[in-house]
Amino acid sequence: MAKKIIMFCRHYVPPILLLPYQTFQFLYPKLSFQVSRASNHHFHNLKADEIQTHVPIETKLSSSFITDSEIQSEFAHHAPGVARMNNGSFGCCPASIISDLHQWQLKLLRQPDHFYLNELQNRILESRTVVKDLINAEDVDEVSIVDNVSTAVAIVLQQTAWAFAERKFNQGDALIMFHCAYGAVKNSIKAYFLRAGGYVIEVPFKFPLNSNEEIISEFRKALEREKGNGRRVRLAVIDHVTCMPSVIMPVKHLVKICREEGVEQVLIDAAHGVGCIDVDMQEIGADFYTSNLYKWFFCPPAVAFLYCRKSVTNSDLQLHHPVVSHEYGNGLAKETGWVGTRDYSPYLVLPSVMEFVNRFEGGVEGIRKMNHDAVVEMGKMLAEAWGTNLGCPPDMCASMIMVGLPACLGISSDDDAIKLWARLCKKFGVEVKIHYQAPKDAEVAPTTGYVRICHQIYNKVDDYNKLRDAINQLVRDGFTCALEVYICSAFIHFIGL
């Protein structure tokens, strides 16, 4: 009798208990993935025949917001004694998300056959749906998950190389980009577009900036000049937030100009996009948009997305992942969802990240505003302390801002900027990026060095005070980059190298 009771409980009670949930899911599918961390643990242990396709919802904001002590606990794994003001390079990942990442990894390793074949694609679809809602895309099929922006850019540029090979493009057809485009993106342009026979229009980027009009004017002039020379511009590659020097680009206006001037396609490189600035595909109107999710959206490395506008996705455009695997030809979203056996865990934490950001007042928008206001305040404090200036008006910066460094530091090259960066890191425990800006003609006592500071939720005022005091110490000590080079050269000569 006891054995019969056990068998009944094992085989019939779980479905009975799950029936209300499954009914609710059927009637309200958009609400089916609202699960707490505790229910996530149970959910991950469901049997294969109990797993359904779930669609993330627009999570309601918590009525009890995260506290300062909880924030510090989430980032207690950061190296102690280091002032991290360089979130823009590699981002940050909270402890709770790292824990979820490990759970996904264990789930994969526990039974890889089942996970890869029966579960992975449903989970990736959930993450794609989260991104679709974040960026206000029209359809989830417009969103593909990739490792990083470099992969996304390669996908777009690869199809231009094929267009030249298949004679859809003519030799000398052009791509337009700004001089400040990211180095890896420039290399992709060389590898795919230039090598195939294309021509690159490089728009000057004059820094520091006073207004968006300076950017818009240079872009329009470059387009009109090349069109006047008979160039056909096939693709524009535009940053949403430039890396170095860092400013928000007026992408909506630049996309509008591209449409007016007959540029066929527009790719927005938004490595610093989601979590840093407002991202809305319907308003921006680009053909392609790519953003990392580990820089400003708390995901672990490496996860990003590529948005392809529906009209582009449904055209005869050949978009494929650079790594050819079993899903080749089945659509970009499927191709990017399987590029061979690997750890896809970073792709799967997006629902948990949404839960995390919604622990903050205002959610992702609240975090963005807080970071922007804080970085502007700290930027102004540093500029005043050093007697310098900001690199752009506050409304042209996101969660990063450029602050002029004292001219007496003698930054006269990119190499000097690297030397100062290394000194700040090694001697003072300060992590920032340093930018060299060549002086303009007839400029007197120019500021040629700028520091890029970032603000993320874990930063404190003490971090920026530490940077301020480090620079002031170098100035008091009479440090210059030229002297640093001289001392290094003399030491090398002394030891006979």
TrEMBL record:
Protein origin, superkingdom: Eukaryota
Keyword annotations: Pyridoxal phosphate
InterPro entries from the UniProt entry: Aminotrans_V_dom, PyrdxlP-dep_Trfase, PyrdxlP-dep_Trfase_major
Chain ranges of the Aminotransferase class V domain: 118-314
Gene3D superfamilies (alphabetical): Type I PLP-dependent aspartate aminotransferase-like (Major domain) (3.40.640.10)
Short name of any one Pfam family annotated for the protein: Aminotran_5
GO MF annotation terms: carbon-sulfur lyase activity
UniProt xrefs under PANTHER family: HERCYNYLCYSTEINE SULFOXIDE LYASE (PTHR43092:SF2), L-CYSTEINE DESULFHYDRASE (PTHR43092)
Protein's name according to its UniProt entry: Aminotransferase class V domain-containing protein
Source organism per UniProt: Prunus persica (Peach)
